[in-house]
Design goal:
Blueprint lengths: L2 E5 L5 H10 L3 E5 L7 H5 L3 E2 L3 H7 L2 E4 L4 H9 L13 E4 L5 H13 L3 E4 L2 E2 L2 H6 L2 E7 L1 H14 E6 L5 H29 L4 H10 L5 H12 L8 H18 L4 H15 L16
Parallel strand pairs: 1-2, 1-4, 2-3, 4-5, 5-6, 8-9
Antiparallel strand pairs: 6-8, 7-8
The protein binds NADP nicotinamide-adenine-dinucleotide phosphate.
Length: about 290
């Protein structure tokens, strides 16, 4: 059975790597802060000293790190994945990045004869733990087919969108809608409260009607309780809003709703809520 390399053991990476190990695969892991490797070591993973070492020791390496800068550092940096790749090996980047970053990594990987797939994931901490993520892949189709058993351990659905960049764009479009919806919900709760209504009753009424959705059901009651336990950190949501807006600029789309929502995420970041859940954007409303 193939040995899988896994880089980036944050909120998402740790449970995802655990699900792959529990699916019966051998694994080599790396995380910049080595202390986060402990839970995987306990489950039998070997620990590497660099992304390069992971890629050198595995046929297939997967990465999930914060943002474009982190993905570039891990993939193309001094002791990055690229240095450990060779013809035929596979590299899958699950991080949420912009299309240009993904394309830059893809061309470096394919230049050394290895195969590249971008595969950002939709869903947060709980779906990562439960193996119910949605995989949004693009790039090497053969690698996608080979990775389907792994995606089956990570998620409930996998989609293939074609050339590198298209999975990244799909992920940014999804998160842009989610960010705008979270801000819209915050506004609705604020209006209801300001008008002397019970905002919990607004959640009930929304849930009975055509805009009923799992996001409002999951986040709404916690927002009203002032609980913002991190599932998807606000700093990553703002990063995704920024990347989506930049992609809109490139495509000549003005995206006014997302632009307005991003202002509230930026305010929340400035207020120090970046490590709280993205729903902490509610605190930016008075
Ligand atoms: P996280 O908990 O903040 O973890 C970030 C990971 O990136 C850590 O392993 C961190 O290493 C690593 N990292 C950051 N900068 C690095 C660098 N320069 N070099 C090497 N490693 C670096 O983030 P997360 O929530 O797991 O999210 C990871 C990715 O998945 C992001 O792109 C995010 O947008 C996406 N995503 C997240 C969710 C969610 O709900 N959380 C859902 C879908 C997609 P250290 O431990 O050393 O800091």
């Amino acid at each position: 059975m193939k040995r899988i390399g896994f880089i980036g053991l944050g909120t998402m990476g740790t449970p995802m790597a655990q699900n792959i190990i529990r699916g019966g695969y051998d694994m080599v892991v790396y995380n910049r802060n080595a202390s986060k490797c402990a839970p995987l070591k306990k489950e039998g993973a070997l620990i590497a000293d660099s992304p390069q070492e992971v890629a050198a020791e595995c046929d297939l390496t997967m990465t999930i790190v914060s943002d474009p800068q982190a993905a570039l550092a891990v993939s193309l940096g001094d002791d990055g994945v690229l240095k450990g790749l060779s013809p035929g090996k596979g590299y899958i980047d699950l991080s949420t990045v912009d299309a240009a970053t993904s394309q830059k990594i893809a061309s470096a990987v394919t230049e050394v004869g290895a195969r590249f797939l971008e595969a950002p994931v939709s869903g947060s901490k709980k779906p990562a733990e439960d193996g119910t993520l949605i995989i949004l892949a693009a790039g090497d189709n053969g690698l996608y087919e080979e990775a389907l058993p792994l995606f089956g351990l990570l998620g409930k659905a996998a989609h293939y969108f074609g050339d590198v960049g298209r999975g990244a764009m799909m992920k940014l479009a999804v998160n842009m809608v989610m960010g705008s919806m979270t801000v819209a919900l915050s506004e609705g709760l604020t209006l209801a409260k300001g008008a002397g209504l019970d905002p919990a009753a607004l959640l009930d009424v929304l849930d009975e009607g055509v805009v009923s959705n799992p996001l409002f059901r999951l986040k709404g009651p916690a927002m009203l309780r002032g609980e913002f336990t991190t599932a998807f950190p606000l700093k990553h949501m703002q990063k995704d809003m920024r990347l989506a807006l930049e992609a809109g600029d490139d495509a000549g789309s003005t995206l006014p709703v997302a632009n307005a929502a991003n202002v509230k995420f930026l305010e929340s970041l400035a207020d120090g809520y970046g490590d709280e859940d993205m729903s902490a954007v509610f605190k930016a409303f008075k």
